[in-house]
Amino acid sequence: MENGYVKSNIENGIATVTFFHPQSNSLPGIILRALAREIETMGNNPEAKVIILKSDGDKTFCAGASFDELIAIKDIETGKHFFSGFAGVINAMRKAPKFVIVRIQGKAVGGGVGIASASDYTFAHDSAAIKLSELAVGIGPFVVGPAVERKMGASAFCQLTINAGEWHNSLFAQQKGLYAHVFKTHREMDTAILSLAQKLAASSPEAMKMLKKVMWEGTEHWDKLLLERAEMSGTLVLSDFTKNFISSFKKK
């Protein structure tokens, strides 16, 4: 992946999965699929007791869908295939038989908010504002919507979706349940993440597996649902509105 990467390691029972893309950690299809595979692999690895999911860099956590890839989509099937990449990541996170802790070091947009919402426990830096910008682009947060609504509630999801151009700060995200803790410094955040991960790595794997299953009850249909949502986004991304918006944005 010359334009980004996904990597992982396991240390003392703690698996860390890291993704990166030079364009503000945006997510092209190849990274989405590699990320889903790596989460699934760590979920099935008996040496990993808990998973930390993070992105590299100290600014943006995730800028969402790659605009370069969006503007290259020419048919519904290609569009569905691209957006199903987000479905794959969310489903891998919810189905992993281990708790997934997500580290949000900066702003999260669109799919980045979806990843935060699909976590079991989320730590964030004070700068980690969120935005669901999809409607402004001419599509909608269809794939990430179920995860965001489950985590933050229908009211917050509608607020984020309708006012697509507005950033909501980390306090809003914490008050709505997206973030468990917000920190002023990255060092404080990383210390707290490691502390919890170490405690979980020393806890009963079977108890955590059962708890994870209970916590995600009612989402068993998401394998099908999120693919249906991916087709909705894949259809809308072909519109002149979306093509014109992305072209204008890229010229700025």
**CATH overall fold name:** 2-enoyl-CoA Hydratase, Chain A, domain 1
Shape: globular
CATH architecture term: Alpha-Beta Complex
Briefly, what CATH class? Alpha Beta
Helical proportion?
40-55%
Poorly predicted runs of 5 or more residues: none
User: Average pLDDT value?
Assistant: 96
SSE string, helix = H, strand = E?
EEHEHHEEHEEHHHHEHHHH
As laid out across the biggest beta sheet, the strand order is 1-2-3-4-6-8
Please identify the structural class as seen in this structure.
alpha/beta
Major sheet characteristics: 6 strands, mixed
> How many β-strands, per DSSP?
8
What is the count of distinct domains?
1
CATH homologous superfamily grouping: 2-enoyl-CoA Hydratase, Chain A, domain 1
Question: What fraction of the residues are assigned to beta strands by DSSP?
Answer: 5-15%
Cα-to-Cα separation, first versus last residue = 27 Å
User: Rounded to an integer, what's the Rg over CA atoms?
Assistant: 17 Å
How many H/I helical runs? 12
